[in-house]
Amino acid sequence: MSTALGPLVGGWLIDTLSWRWIFFVNLPLAVGVVLAAMRWVPESRDEAVSRTGGGRGFDVVGAVLGALALGGVTYALIDAPAQGASPAVLGAAVVGVVAVAVFVLVERRRGDTAMLPTGLFSSRLFAVLNVFTVVVYAALGGFTFFLAVYLQNVVGWSALLTGLATVPMTLLLLVGSPRAGALSARIGPRLPLTVGPVIAAIGLLLLRRVGPGASYWTDVLPGVALFGAGLTLVVAPLTTSVLGAVSDRFAGVASGFNNAASRAGGLLAVAALPLLVGLSGTGYEQKGALADAYRGALLWCACLLLAGALLAALLIHRPRVKGGGPS
């Protein structure tokens, strides 16, 4: 819901204050989360580790390597269209790739005390669900980015009106997610995780037809509503399945990794899609170039969603883990 609500809040901040406030708004939110956690979140610990007298500690090396991996790859993707194979781009790409390899080695050596125990991926379902997460949230991140840019620079809407365009997604998630979770509990996650991305992909294909002078009610709303309905079928069943794919003692790690996978999918999509559709620099200010890139990007996002649907149909099943080891 917060991801879908972001364009509305961002649009209001841009029109009312300045685009720089999209960064400042994180500070009070972070303070609020810390205070709430200190006041209301009960302490918990891995009892299996406690019984052996060990301690997980904080995996500083793993955290640094993970940040370097994601940061290096993202920087290279963002700057490649403008700088080409410059030393900075190549250096960032090398740092990112090497950090990924070293991260896997370090986490494997630390075993269950790692920030990301690699034993979790012995559960094929857990691995597949996280690939599914990256694919679907990449489509979400790419879609919301290109829709916001297109509606402002081509259609001519203000930042606030552009943000309001995605409100139906937020409302559908708010109202429909509990029902989607209940449905998944009854019939299993495969059908919702297959049908949801297909519906969302149809919504994106409809939105490719939006052009200058478009009407919100007849041109934008149907596609946004379909995308939101498809996403609603995905979110709750996906979260429940990820937690059910590992034993209870790894629930926190599994949830954290899946959350990171969703954020990484969106981040990489925003970095990579402009490169894939040939958009860079002043292209965002040229209506013709931006319109072509927008349609190409939404087609890529629709293909990602359909790939996720195929993955769910073939490989996702009802979780059966009830305790014990990682899988």
Task: Describe the fold and architecture.
It is built from 13 helices and no strands. With 327 residues, it is an all-alpha fold. The protein has two domains: 232 residues, Growth Hormone, Chain: A, CATH 1.20.1250.20; 55 residues, no CATH class. Helix 5 runs antiparallel to helix 6, helix 5 runs parallel beside helix 12 and helix 7 packs across helix 12. The longest helix has 32 residues.
Descriptors:
327 residues, mainly alpha, Growth Hormone, Chain: A, 2 domains, 13 helices, 76% helix, globular
The biggest beta sheet, please? none
| Tally of individual helices | 13
> Averaging pLDDT over every residue, what do you get?
88
Distance between the termini: 30 Å
In short:
This protein has 327 residues and is mostly helical. It contains 13 helices and no strands. Helix 10 runs antiparallel to helix 11 (216-244).
What are the SSEs and their pairings?
Layout: H1 2-16, H2 21-24, H3 26-40, H4 47-51, H5 60-83, H6 87-110, H7 124-155, H8 159-164, H9 167-187, H10 190-207, H11 216-244, H12 251-276, H13 287-315
Helix pairs in contact: 5-6, 5-12, 7-12, 7-13, 9-11, 10-11, 10-13, 11-12
